[in-house]
Design a protein that fits this description.
Layout (H helix, E strand, L loop, with lengths): L2 H14 L7 H8 L3 H13 L3 E3 L6 E3 L3 H10 L2 H17 L3 E7 L2 E8 L15 E2 L5 H9 L2 H10 L12 H14 L2 E5 L2 E9 L5 E9 L7 H21 L12 H4 L3
Antiparallel strand pairs: 1-2, 3-4, 3-8, 4-5, 6-7, 7-8
Length: 262
């Protein structure tokens, strides 16, 4: 990739990671680039509208114009179009927020969410959120069902010394990915928050993403409710996959009894 284009895109990503505007010096120090180079890139990004300078100072932030790109891409997202009716039904049935993700280099990226009527419980399901593969049910699903090459690249990218469900335990995480493929789904229960993730497939058994459901800790969760959430999510995932052209033979054979085990 052209270095100028590469640096410009990396600066946009960097600006998007934080709420605070940044100076040319701060950006240049982070990327170890000359101030003059960063200044030229920011000038170009500002001229085309994807970055903006804060009035009254010399700091920059990412522009809301970036939403046009995301919106244009999502309008063409066939998975989201096919999944919406099923997401709506599942959200109303379980009275909680549900979301659909696309697999991206083995990661799970939220592309849409649905909420039941009068839903007020806080959820961190923002479109564009990239799930951690070690700290989310859908993240685990996308890692588990990606190709071996993609999965190994993903595993090598993870900083195993950082905090997460599997801090310092790569082998345990790899074993869990095998278990997920055997169970057909991923479960997560941390801090009273329960999450279920199931894979979504296209024609020819190609992984397209994942379907996720999260029950917040504010919700009184009985064993019966939790099992109903799992089974309903599994059924919905199968319907969305069939709508995408996947056959029943290509879909995982879910083992409900296995999912009851810790």
């Amino acid at each position: 990739m052209n270095n100028t284009l590469h640096n410009g895109l990396k600066i946009l990503e960097f600006l998007a990671t934080g709420a605070e505007a940044l100076s040319i010096k701060e950006i240049a120090e982070y990327f170890q680039l000359p101030n003059s180079h960063v200044c030229r890139l920011l000038k170009s990004l500002t001229e085309i509208g994807y970055a903006e300078q804060i009035p009254g100072n010399r700091k920059y932030r990412i522009s809301l114009k970036i939403l046009n790109l995301a919106n244009a891409r999502l309008k063409k997202e066939n998975l989201l179009r096919l999944a919406r009716p099923y997401l709506h039904q599942l959200a109303e049935k379980l009275n909680t927020a549900v979301f659909v993700t696309r697999v991206y280099c083995g990661y799970s990226l939220i592309i849409g969410a649905e909420y039941p009527a009068f839903f007020t419980e806080a959820q961190d399901m923002v479109v564009g959120t990239l799930h951690s593969p070690t700290s989310s049910a859908c993240g685990k699903v996308c890692a588990a069902y990606s190709t071996e090459e993609v999965r190994q690249t993903l595993l090598n990218e993870i900083d195993w010394e950082q905090t997460g469900d599997y801090q310092g335990r790569r082998k345990e995480f790899e074993d869990e990915l095998v278990n997920i493929r055997q169970r057909g789904c991923a479960l997560r229960d941390v801090g009273g928050v329960g999450a279920v993730g199931v894979p979504l497939f296209e024609e020819n058994g190609i992984l397209s993403g994942a379907l996720g459901v999260m029950l917040p800790k504010e919700r009184s969760r009985t064993a019966e409710l939790w099992q109903a959430v799992i089974e309903s999510t599994v059924s919905c995932g199968k319907l969305i996959s069939i709508a995408q052209g996947a056959s029943l033979e290509e879909y995982p054979n879910y083992n409900i009894s296995a999912r009851r085990k810790k």
